[in-house]
Design goal:
alpha/beta, ten-stranded mixed β-sheet, 8 helices, 12 strands, about 25% strand
Length: about 260
């Protein structure tokens, strides 16, 4: 885990998220790419310089955020980029071949019922890179205890768990595997790939209507420092990711959420 991308949004949350990323990078010895994306407008006449104004405001916002964090000697490469926000972030992440995206859970304070805003939610939906979602105001601490929550025990791709394995190695973390059996599970889903059993310190089976309900039922018992889920093309989480925004009533994590990308 040598390179991390941090897309910035609202400055208050951006400072907190970037500081978390810096603190994390100082542990794993990674460099950080920070980007601030600004949109474009099609204007004429007196407003023909609007794009230049947007770029200047974006650069000033980026400089403000960078000035407010303790860089701890970490290499930070920052840039403002013009374009559609989610597409631009996804393109840059792919071009830079980053290992992890660290993003804020929510992009705007306008709606308190939202857990993931449209930008972070759009990234979860579109990117194939692992993402670590940081709640508002959350400060970095060692990740010693991980709750890995899955519905299907199948793994169709050998490298799906590699980012999680990095976390385990870096922090010497314990993994509590929660296998949630829902009414939609098949017989195959209820089996466990050896990849899961190899990394799990404990394995718990739970019958719930959804994965999120299973997480809520076992959260206090496990008391994790991070929750890990796998975004698949089918299943409960796939339904969540259909929309860019995710409401707290459907899913919320008040600790960092690591989202891995499965392909089934």
């Amino acid at each position: 885990m040598k390179s991390i991308l941090v897309p910035l949004g609202d400055s208050e949350k951006a400072i907190c998220t970037l500081q978390y990323a810096i603190d994390f990078a100082s542990i794993v010895n990674a460099k950080i790419y920070v980007i601030q994306v600004f949109g474009t407008t099609k204007v004429a006449g007196a407003l023909k310089n609007m794009n230049e104004l947007l770029e200047r405001d974006s650069e000033e916002e980026l400089a403000h955020v960078l000035a407010k964090v303790d860089k701890k000697g970490i290499e930070i490469i920052s840039k403002t980029i013009k374009g559609q926000i989610v597409d631009s972030i996804n393109r840059v992440a792919t071009l830079l071949n980053v290992d992890l995206i660290i993003a804020s859970a929510k992009n705007s304070a306008a709606d308190s019922s939202i857990y993931l805003g449209r930008i972070t939610g759009g990234l979860v939906k579109q990117t194939e890179l692992p993402m670590l979602i940081i709640p508002k105001g959350y400060k970095f601490k060692s990740i010693n205890n991980i709750l890995l929550s899955i519905r299907s025990g199948l793994l169709r791709r050998s490298n799906v768990l590699e980012p999680l394995e990095d976390f385990i190695k870096i922090f010497k973390a314990k993994v509590n595997l929660l296998h949630v059996v829902t009414p939609h599970n098949t017989v195959e889903d209820n089996s466990l790939d050896p990849g899961f059993t190899e990394i799990a310190d404990t394995i718990t089976n739970s019958e719930n209507a959804t994965v999120f309900q299973g997480v809520l039922e076992h959260l206090l018992e496990v008391n994790p420092d991070m929750i890990c889920v796998i975004r698949r093309k089918r299943g409960f989480f796939a339904r969540l990711w259909e929309q860019n925004s995710i409401k707290k009533v459907d899913f919320e994590s008040r600790i960092p959420l690591l989202i891995l990308k499965g392909n089934i």
